[in-house]
Amino acid sequence: MKYQFGAHARTIAIFQLLLSLLCFVFGVLTKVYGSDVPYLMDTVAPGIWCSVFALAAAWKVLSTINKPTYTKLFWSNVTNWTASFFQFFVVAIQVYSLTHLLIAGKDFQTTFVTYAFISVGLVTSFILLLICVHNAKKFGRLCSNANSADNPEYFNDMTAISADTGATLVKISVLAIALSIPAVYIAYGEPYDYTYLARVGAGIWCSVMSLVAGALCYKSVPTKNNAQITATFAFGIIASVFATCELGVEVGAAVQCLMYQGEYPEMQTTFQVHMIVSACAMYQLALSIFIAVTYGKMNEAMLAKVI
């Protein structure tokens, strides 16, 4: 099947790639020049690590345009929605930081250079956010158009996508559990009395459901066993619910750490850990929904044959 990406798709992807690098540079500069400003939320440098997701999304789009397949369309959609989430977070932090400095900048003796880096970084991040959302919606439409009975490539790719999705979900779940265990242990220290969401450990117990759903998905692809298809469908739904809870709790924990990082600088590392787990939760949610929908269709077709 021939996919229609549009006349300027490659140009937009290259522009997204360059903006991601630019956001990374401005994140580093803001980190350096803003380190002497008390309670400046932007010193946690979200522009540095959030731009990595946008960079990966742009690279995936270019790879998809060069050699388009249904699998690459799907992953371009997922990576761009994830990048959009983190760019929105960056924009929100930079807006707060700039407003905070404009109100209380004289007390902090803020230099013009700090204002300039945050302002330019804000504009760059906002443009990058719009591009990520644009690409996510575009590749989502392409996936929807390709998901039809008239497209034989869709059915040929479904086995590869399901196996890849299951393996990826297992890896992401293991990463979320590995990061959450030390984060919860650290959160029971004295500086974390007010960051109660950091003690919940949502990345541990929620990721278990995603881990099971991913393992079932990977296992059921070669066998196509009816019982495994039904079980994968059920756990896909359960994992989606738990991933939603995980995302909400981890973002809340990150926000709480962010609020107190000025008073307790050691919370900057914990904040970044919780944001990485939030990224894992985003992927877990997207992949769990995909598994639930895919295996729901397979389960429906299986029941139709029985009847």
TrEMBL record:
Keyword Cell division carried by entry: no
Keyword line: Membrane, Transmembrane, Transmembrane helix
Transmembrane segments: 44-62, 83-103, 115-133, 168-188, 194-218, 230-255, 275-295
Protein name: Membrane-spanning 4-domains subfamily A member 8
Gene that encodes the chain: Ms4a8b-004
